[in-house]
Amino acid sequence: MVISCTRDCYDTCIFDESYKPLKIFPINGFTCSRGIADLKRNSINRISSAYYNGKEISINEGIQLLAKKIREAKPEEILHIDYDGNQGLLTWYYPARIWNFLGSASTDYSICSSEGHAAIKSHYGNSIGALPEDFEKFSAAVFWGSEASISFIHGWRILKDKYKITIDVRKSETAKKSEKYFIVKPGSDAYLAIGIMKFLIWKEYIQNDELKNKVKAFDMDTIIKATGLKEEEIEELADLYYYYKPLTIIGFALGRSINGGYSIGLISIIPKLLGIEKGFFYANSQGLGIDFDYLRGLHKYKPRKIIGMGEVGDRINEFKIIFVWNSNPIHSLPGSNKIIEAVNDGRIFLVVHDPFWSETAKIANLVFPAPTFLEKNDIVYSYWHNYLIYNEPIIRNNNAITEVELMQRLANSLELNDPLLFEEPMKAVNFALRNTNVNISDLLSRKIVKIEPKYSNTFSLDPFPTPTDLEFPNGEFMIYSAHPNYTNSQFKEIYGNKIPVVYNSKLDGEGAIESEIGKVKVIFKKSSDIPDGIYFLFKSNLFDLQNMPINSIIKPSKGKFGGTPNLNIKIKSASRLLY
Ligand SMILES: Nc1nc2c(c(=O)[nH]1)N[C@H]1C(S)=C(S)[C@@H](COP(=O)(O)OP(=O)(O)OC[C@H]3O[C@@H](n4cnc5c(=O)[nH]c(N)nc54)[C@H](O)[C@@H]3O)O[C@H]1N2
Ligand SMILES: Nc1nc2c(c(=O)[nH]1)N[C@H]1C(S)=C(S)[C@@H](COP(=O)(O)OP(=O)(O)OC[C@H]3O[C@@H](n4cnc5c(=O)[nH]c(N)nc54)[C@H](O)[C@@H]3O)O[C@H]1N2
Ligand code: SF4
Ligand SMILES: [Mo]
């Protein structure tokens, strides 16, 4: 029997039944500060019953109440918000069927990685890159907009003794541990990638007339101004790429910055130009061949409306009911202050299914208790390694209701009888795996099975930007990164609720950050690791000194490729003055 951590994390650790990390590659017998605290955390801050407006009710009463609300609303007035709090196929994907059957509004799942997936696919047909075994073959690695030594510890373990180059907007922990680092301006990575390509051509490291014509449109002066690097530094990067033929780890932060899709797409084609096989890694989930749409019922049903994850706050008036699972939108989505206001005013009936009292669960009208991954059966995949895992519970929890059971009991309550809503879950998974080398009975008996990913053979330099396609980065920016002790908003039960500290080059003490749409109050802290014009926060504590979501000051937006909102925003001012 095995357990697999299903949190939104590259590593997807696998444990034995006594919760020791398996000594198989690439888990290699170690885990993170969250992994070692999971057993302890499992009994803290848990939702232990259903609640209606703060009052304990039975799960059955909760389901009846939800069914009544659903009957009173039009499908497009019901929005479900679900993300990667647990990426089990039976926790995240399959339970979406009921909402898609009803035709409810859906988000576009764009908050994190969709921009990069779409950009890389537009060049390669697929976004899959290097697998853990491939990581081992390289003698060098480039960490481009990636804080891998914190966000991706098992990948880092494989690469940490190689020659390492980091490209970041601040002196990150990964930069400090690298042999070379380059600090660029936020959102300038597309320019830098083109600068590197220009040198690769000038120095005749590569011959490619089509590329030569495309990069001509960009002059070196503009690239230097945009990136803030010296010409010699860009040349050095081209030399390093040519001589080391490194693996490039393309971080998710890039997709949430300006020019994000172009940056990621252009970075991903550098290895190809240099003939480096499987020379990049972004996220491998979409190359595994799992039919996620089938699990969600999207092969048959269609949401009546799809909205950007960055738009939920702004378009809140279009909805009457929001059903949330696997996500903590009050913490994580742009404009989430508008969700809070709408719930407080009674304009939105907010329903949350979560194992823990997340910030969103705390303000919800109706709450359902979910089991953690330690307490339920699931099929788990990783966005890095290619194991499929049959996760079995090691702790019993009779108070909680699984996502599958909640969906099916709600369907009964609504007198829905479409067979897809009641398809035996493992049968559904088996069908979703039909294009892979894995079948469910094999997986259920062997517990861990390697899936053989599918690579595509197509390649195109397009979509290659022209200068007018790119936004020239100037001004001051707020940026975020992963904290070692938290996964997004999770783990405050163990590691505490931190104050909102904004690391920067100039200011110390209490003050405010203002964007074009609002202001939040924070604690500034000077750090020599941060260049002028950069305001850095960990992405695990997104509430200001007055408990306002920091994301209140992020306006709605949609990336050009996969719809990812710009979270690393340009700000208007940062100052010690509060008013
Ligand atoms: N411990 C821990 N691990 C995690 C998570 C966590 O919360 N905690 N979260 C998981 C999730 S959800 C994700 S998405 C990943 C995220 O992990 P990563 O992919 O590593 O991305 P980020 O941590 O968002 O940012 C990485 C780096 O990008 C830099 N950066 C910001 N903007 C720019 C830019 O415009 N250009 C360049 N070159 N650099 C820039 C930041 O300074 C930061 O050092 O980690 C996963 N792993
Ligand atoms: N300003 C700013 N905003 C950001 C970011 C940033 O860098 N800056 N980062 C963005 C990124 S990268 C991401 S990925 C998003 C993440 O945003 P969220 O999706 O909100 O991620 P989490 O905070 O991990 O919340 C996941 C929720 O799922 C719950 N959960 C865990 N396991 C289960 C389960 O088995 N069942 C159910 N029903 N629920 C479960 C957890 O308890 C938690 O409440 O935030 C984004 N928001
Ligand atoms: S959060 Fe990541 S590194 Fe930590 S236990 Fe889970 S999968 Fe492993
Ligand atoms: Mo993420």
TrEMBL record:
Domain Molybdopterin oxidoreductase: 164-380
Keyword Iron recorded: yes
The entry's keywords: Iron, Iron-sulfur, Metal-binding
Entry superkingdom: Archaea
GO function terms (MF aspect): iron-sulfur cluster binding; oxidoreductase activity
Record's protein name: Dehydrogenase
Lineage summary: Archaea, Thermoproteota, Thermoprotei, Sulfolobales, Sulfolobaceae
